[in-house]
Amino acid sequence: MRIATWNLLWRFGDWEPRQRLIEEGLAEQASDLVLLQETWPGQAERLASMLAMTVIAFEGGYFDQDLSSVPNDEVFGNAILAKPELPVELVHRGAFDAPGDPAPRNLLVARVGNGSEAVLVATSHLTHIADSHDGREAQLRHVAGVLDDLGGPAVFCGDLNLIPSSPEHAVAESLGFVDAWLEAHPDPADVEAFGATMIPANAEIRFTDWMNDRNGSAAPPGSGVRLDYVWTTASSGSTADRPIVAELTRFGFGTGERWPSDHLGLVFELTPAGTTDGPGRNTPR
C-alpha cells in the first residue's frame, strides 16, 4: 500500500497558482492513500476527483479571528483520500486542545485493510507555536491514547511541527512511536539523515532564519527543518506487529518561483508486519 502525506499550505498567500503544482505532485506519487494537512473540503474533493479517489474524511474548523489575520472564509483541516478499491473504515475523528493556537487541531484515524493485515492509519497537524513543547507533548499523548484504545498496529503521519532534537520527539519515542525516517537513515553522516521537509530553497517561504533558530546546534545552518513525520507503532502490549515502512522519500520540490507548498511531502510503501511478499523494512529510495 502506497501512502503520501503532505501539508498543502491551505489558502495562504497567492494560493491559486499552486493548485496545479499540487495536483501534478500528487499524481506523480500514484498513491493508494493520501493524507492531507492544511486543506479544505473543496480542495480535498477536487484532488480526490483528479486522483480517482474518494474523500474518506475531512475534519477541521475556522481560525480564531482574534488571533489570526487569515480571512474567515474557509475551514482549515486534515483529510484522508483513498482509492475506491482499498478497504478503508474511518474509526476516529475529533479535535484536541491547542492552547493559544489560532488554528484548529484534530486527529483522523482510519483502519485500512482486512483481518490480520489491517493497519490503523492516523494523520494530524500539531500546534505550530515553536515553544509550545508541552502542547505538542499533550497532543502526542492524546494520539497514542486513541490508537491504544482502537487497538492494532499503526502508522501515524503528518505535520507535527517538532524537530528531531526536541523534547516532544523523545516523548513520542517513549510512547512507542518509531520515527521511520531515522530508522531508514540511522547514520548521522548519511546525506539524507536530516531529511528536512521545509528548506530555505523553497520559494514559498519568505523568511528562513527561523529554521536555524529552531534547530539551534542540532543541525548546520541552512539545513532547513524536519517537521513532517511518518511514525510506526505496534499494537498495545506487542512489539512484533509494527508495520513495515519502505521506500520512504520526499516529494514536492519546486523548480522556479512557485512551489506546490511550503512543505515537502513524504511518500512510502506500508506493509503489515509478518507479510513476506512486501519490500524490505525502510529501504530508502
Describe this structure in words.
- By secondary structure, this protein is of the alpha+beta class.
- It has a single domain (2-271), classed as Endonuclease/exonuclease/phosphatase (Deoxyribonuclease I, Chain A).
- The protein contains six helices and twelve strands.
- The chain has helices spanning 18-29, 41-50, 133-150, 167-174, 180-184, 209-215, and strands spanning 2-7, 33-39, 54-61, 76-82, 88-95, 106-112, 119-125, 154-159, 178-179, 228-233, 244-251, 265-271.
- The strands form two sheets. The protein has a six-stranded mixed sheet with strand order 3-4-2-1-12-11.
- Helix 3 (133-150) packs parallel to helix 4 (167-174).
- The longest helix is centred in the middle third of the chain and has 18 residues, at 133-150.
- The radius of gyration is 18 Å and the shape is globular.
Topology:
Layout: E1 2-7, H1 18-29, E2 33-39, H2 41-50, E3 54-61, E4 76-82, E5 88-95, E6 106-112, E7 119-125, H3 133-150, E8 154-159, H4 167-174, E9 178-179, H5 180-184, H6 209-215, E10 228-233, E11 244-251, E12 265-271
Parallel strand pairs: 1-2, 7-8
Antiparallel strand pairs: 1-12, 2-4, 3-4, 5-6, 6-7, 8-10, 9-10, 11-12
Helix pairs in contact: 3-4
